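Protein fold
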Amino acid sequence: MTQFGPDRTWIHDTHRPPLAIAHRGASAYAFDNTMRAFEVARELGADMWEVDVRLTADGVPVAFHDADLKAACGRDLRLSDVTAAVLADLTAAAGRSAPLFADIAALAARAGAGIYLDAKEGEAASRAVDILLDNRIARAIVGANTPDYCAELLAAGCPYPVSILVGLGGDPFEIADRCGAQIVHPCWERAGDRPDALLDDAFFAKARERGLPVVTWHEERTDVVEALVKMPVLGICSDQPEMVARYKSAGLRRPEIVCHRGACGIAPENTKSAARAAWAAGFDSVEIDVRETSDGELVVHHDPLLERTTSGAGELAEKTLAEIAALDAGSWFDPFFNDEPVPLLAEIVDMAFGAGGKLYVELKQADPVRTVQAVLKRMAPEDVFFWSANVDWLHLIRETFPQAMLMARPEDFDSLDTCLAAFEADIIEFNRRNANAAGFETVRRAGRKVMVAYMGSDTAEMERLLGLQPDLVNVNEPFQVARLLAGKEDNGSMDVRRIRA
């Protein structure tokens, strides 16, 4: 074993926000405990990754929650009865490979992420801890599900702090006193609609008396997460770790982030999952593309053809809504999203309203008056803006809906002045080739906002464009932009990205 010794003082740091702990990876967007789940957790900016660890028949630590393979592979086998090689074959065939814990630890070391280790047995814990030490993981917690297991870990000299997980009905402080736990972790996600109410002043007083940091259950309800973030907790587990440290533009001199086709590196573009991920992370707007079916229904889809992002074929405009509704718009991206539907425009609008988010609506092939009516019936005009390559449609929208916000692009006009005058657009979108300080100043003198569209991932180019201080940025890589603005950019982004035009 290496002589590397982790520092435990970080668990008592009360001068920072709660850590975002990705529960079994970002398991809202990938099969839990898979390499992709942890790669997505990295992209979402999770501080720590919770990993379930078990041993195979040949003693190899793997990331796997259940004791058997029924749920993951449909096989009536115990994980401890199969070798690592057999497990790899079985899970790969089921479309959700179980990674070696060593591979996860190596990824965490490269990403600078911590590990919350939930080892299901003592030997699995000791072998996993050795791997953490070999990878010089400084920030780790070892979780125990029972007081006896907690005491066993401590008696064995676990070099990392040990937490005790306590279910409903248990007194976390009595149990911690009995077993010597160094962190308490109440697993109270099923305690009604507002389990955060159980973490009252008396609870934290007891925690302070004992010097015990608190980690909470996995939580994905917006109101509960918002309450927990304001509490003196060490960390918050979540299937959606982006909810814990949400991006904020208002009042911070940061640009509004517009997620092109949603958070399209996390979930399939132009779907409810991609929109949900964007707003959950605190990003301001989701860009969507609107088309019309043959029977006049408004749906969200980019291409005129169905082949690239759905299980269908042919022109969308030639299909009825019933035919579109039967398509799978997610499995092309990842098997986790099998059966993700092509959303109705009304569904995305309802999501935006419910999330308090904004929309950028691009009209691809849809009646402009009906489209704008459908959106503004639900959303305030200041929370949505519209654009189309069809300039006549934009003039029609301006005439019919003077309160609607419109966007224009300088590249579509002879000059910037012509662009500003055409239909009095509220937002002018530059790109990487024509963005410049002088143009931005001209737009702002006219009382309009500046947006920059950049669909690449080159860090230097992003920094250059952000240095021009646009009001909005329209991007495929919102999490990379957020990291840059927070000064946290690492040396790589997730390697499971789908390339988009």
The longest strand covers residues 48-55. The chain has two domains: 9-243, 256-489. The mean pLDDT is 94.
